[in-house]
Every structure is written in C-alpha cells, then in structure tokens.
Amino acid sequence: MLSRRQIQTWCSSVYSRVTLTRITTFFFIFSFIHCLIQGIIHSFLHSIDYDQRAFLTGITTAGGIPSSNITFLQGSAGKLKLEMCNDIPHGLFGQAVRPCTTVFDSTLDFNSGQSPRTFDWRRGVNVVKVNAAGAVILQSPESPSTVFLTQQCVQTLVEPWQRVTNARREDLAFIFLQFWLLGISVFAIVQDSVPHIITALVTRILVTAWSIYAVWRTRYHADAYAEIYTRPGTPCALDIFTEYFRTRFAVQIADTAASLVALAIALYLSFELLKTYSSQSFKCVGAPAHVQRINKLFLAFLACLQLEVFILVTGMSMWIDVLLNTAIAKISDHTPEYIACFTTSAVLLVPWIVMGWYAIIQEKRKLTVAFLVIGFIIITGWSVMFYSIVYRWTFVQWPFLGVFTVASLCLLLISIVLGVLCRLNFGKGHAEYLRAEAALSSQNFTKEVFTRDEKKEEFDLMEPGKIYYVQTRETDVSDDSPRYILNLPQLPKLDGPFQPSATV
Length: 504
Hints:
Elements lengths: L3 H15 L3 H41 L7 E5 L6 E5 L14 E6 L11 E2 L7 E4 L6 E4 L6 E4 L1 H6 L1 H33 L3 H37 L7 E2 L2 H39 L8 H37 L2 H4 L3 H28 L2 H20 L4 H9 L1 H26 L5 H13 L2 E6 L15 E6 L11 H4 L18
Parallel strand pairs: 4-8
Antiparallel strand pairs: 1-2, 2-3, 5-6, 6-7, 9-10
Helix pairs in contact: 2-4, 2-6, 4-5, 5-6, 5-7, 7-9, 7-12, 9-10, 10-12, 11-12
C-alpha cells in the first residue's frame, strides 16, 4: 500500500502539473465543468426516457405482447409501414414465409371513427387488461375518465418501446463517456501526453457530431409518431408522445449547444497544449529528425489504443445487453457463441492494449508479433459477427450501435497498421531516446525553457521556446546511475535563482 507521504507527494505533483501554466489550469477547469454539465444533461435525458419506457412497458405487458416479437418501421412521411415480426425478416436460408404482419400502414384509412385523444399519464396511470385479445384501458387515479386501446394500438406501441429502451442505453453510454473523457484529459496535462490530448479532442468531435444527428433523429421520430399514433383514423388516435418529444428536444438542443461551445474551447486549448508538448518531445536529449518521425507514429499508435478502451468496450457491452435483454434473446439460435466471442474479447482487450504499448515502447519484437496476431484474431472475430442475421439486424436498426461497431473496427485496423510501421522502425534509436528521457527525469532533472537551433553549435539562453534539461537541485550521481546521467556534467548548487546574463 502507498504510504501517506507517497500519496501527499503524488497529489502535490498532480497539483503542480495542473497549475503549471494558465493553459493547463484552464484546460483542467474546462474539462471538469464540461463533464459536470454533460453528465447532468444526459442524466435528464435518461430520466425522461426512463419514465416514458415505464409507461409503455405497462401497456405492452398488459396487452400480452409476446417477448419474442419485434417491430420493423420503414417508409417515409405519408408512406410509413409498421410490421410486427416473431423472427428476423431476411429472406435467406429458405425463409419461405415472411414472419411479419402489418400493424399500421399510413396509406390505408383505418376509419376507426376516433378523434385525437389526450391522456396525461405523468400524474399516474393504471393499465387494465380488458380481454384475452390484448385490448387495455388506461385509467387516471385523479380522473374518472378512461381511454380504451385496441389490440392493434397496443401492438404498434412496441415500436416506441424499443426506441426508448435503446435511447436509455445511449444516455448511460454518454454519462460514462464524460467521466472517461475527464480522466484522460487530466492524465494528459499531468503526463504532458500528446496522445491523450488528441484522444480527448477526437472524442469531443465525434460526440458533437452525434449530438447534431440526435436532434434531427428526434424531430424525425416526433413527426413519424404523430402520423402513426396521434392522427385521426389511426389505431390509437391518442396523443401520448407530444410532451415527451417536446421535453426531449429542448434538452437535446441544450446538449448540442453545450457540445459546440465545448468543442470550440477544446480546439483552442488543445492546440496550445499540443504546441507546447510537441516542442518538448526529446528536446532535452536532442533527438534527430528520423527519431522525431518515429515518435509521431508511436504517439498515433497510443492514441488509437486509448480510444479503443472506451469505444470497443461500450460497443461490445451494448450488443450483449441487446442480446440478453430484448426479443433477440428469444430469436437468436447462437447466443452461447456470441457470449463466448464477447467474453474472449473482454478478457483479451486490456492485456492486449498494455502488451502493445509495452512492446512498442521497449521494442520487444516477439511481444509485438503476439500483439499483432491477437489484434487480427479480435478483428476477425468481430468481422465474422456480420455473418449473423441478428447482429446485422441490430446493426441496421440501431445506428448508435452501428457507429460504435464501425469506429471500433476502424481503430483496431489502424492500430495494427501503426503497430506494423512501428515494428519496422525498431532499432533506429527511438527506444534509446525514450530511456534517456526517463533516466533524466528519475535523477531529479527538471525541464527549463531555452531555445536551441540544431543547425548551429551555439544556442541562446535568452529566448524561450525549446526545452532542455538542466540540473536545478543537487543530485546524487554514483557509479550505479544510468550511463546517460554519468555522461552529463555536474552543475554546482546555486545559492539563488538562475539569472541568465545578456552578455556571453
């Protein structure tokens, strides 16, 4: 266990790195505030979706809808068609009979004779089953009025129940994403890590793009549900979604605005940090140009590995949740195989990422080969999943899962390509310079700012811009010290702050 002094030292080190400059301080404060705001916004969205799902669950359960039934909405405005299926409609492998029945077609006039009705279920609702056919009655505890829903109306409500259930999964994914994003942002400034800065910035770009799409999607579903459920002559002719979409749309607008503002701030702060951290890379030991190029490949490789931690785990978790807790669980014939694929990937993921980082940074050839082989196995396993009909169906019907799946596969492929490029550059000095950097830091050398022109023999101590290491406190250099340290001249202890002279 860590001692109290070690913990205090670590906290002091973190604080000193966070408050090193105004940019690092602003970046930390910005990351914390953005995490808090986005977490609150998506918590509101989760609460809205939770209440709507609870209401719809009560109706579909009372209506006796089989747990193996799924719905399939297709078409455009004015031509919407909603089908209920007890299997995945694919037309392959001898599926002679389409396992679906049409429960709504907007091109037909159902002539129900009903005018649009309203029912405020937010103050409480009792759902009563009327008969074995699946009709139900909605009763409000504060009003004697009741609303009768036919079996066909109850069947159509399975579609919004599925959509809201998936929306809840998305809300939870975004809540966890904010904490992950805060963590890598703090690590970036504590470790002067360019890969973490890039990872955080790319993630914010993707989150902002998705929030814009989500606003459009909410508006589309609001219009579609008004056509299916609220319009006179529909099986329900009941307005139960207007308030839901109005509230959700307002919160999503706030989410999009916050994401856009945060992205603009993140772009500026990240650019400033990248300029500083990139200029520091190896300047203390004067790395040549080819080592700088190799280091850029290494940093890109690390950035991909760090993105995979969240994206791959989240994508796999959502698929397993769908597989085990939806109608897919009743339909799928290969659930044990899917669980085995998920379990294998989950067990291998963290060791595989650590293996890749260690193998590249230490230039371990055999370990790098093992990393590449395991990477190919993971890519092959998840690529074979597209052979599965239920996986392809879920991929198409739920765009959020599709985005995470495509992103994870792309990151896996890019990681392997960058791993191969890094392997081809083994033995060219990158590992030696990394060890020199670590050795200097371990001997109480601290970074000071000077300028150096590598094309000249002299360097100017007056103009800031480049990074060198100078000894700023006494260091015990013994025969056991690394050879990088033994080759450095010992500087005498200064009685006061270092004051560079204008005259050399």
